[in-house]
Amino acid sequence: MKTPHQTIAALLAITIWADGEYSETERFMADEIANTFRIPAADLGRYIADAFAEIDGLDEAAAHVYLRRHASRVHPLEIPDIFRAAIHMVLADGELTSGEVNNLLAISEALGIDYSTATLMLCDMVKADPEIELTYERV
User: Fold this and answer.
1) Is the pLDDT of residue 70 over 60?
2) pTM
3) What CA–CA distance (Å, rounded) separates 69 from 54?
């Protein structure tokens, strides 16, 4: 990969930020993503933990600045794969929440992926696992 490993970790940490916890399931998914991207799993896990510690406690505006800074470092040809990895991380716990969708859409925007394409990518992955529970607030 041409994208720095710390950048991938930062974007994955933003996906974790929606629920505020770097769970065991997400750690397992990080190992899977590391394997896919040929990054040593221990390295990616450490980078994610460091990034999560960096964004923990940020307000939404500061997190958005953090996201944009790291998204700008993604190699253009790797954007779809890194966004798919973010979706995998979100879906790792078998639940999809409104906050997670908002974070994914913010990531897609920062990466230059339009909302409709990002939404279809998410729908495609959710469709592949019918056991994913959708959780949303009433509007």
Assistant:
1) yes
2) 0.92
3) 13
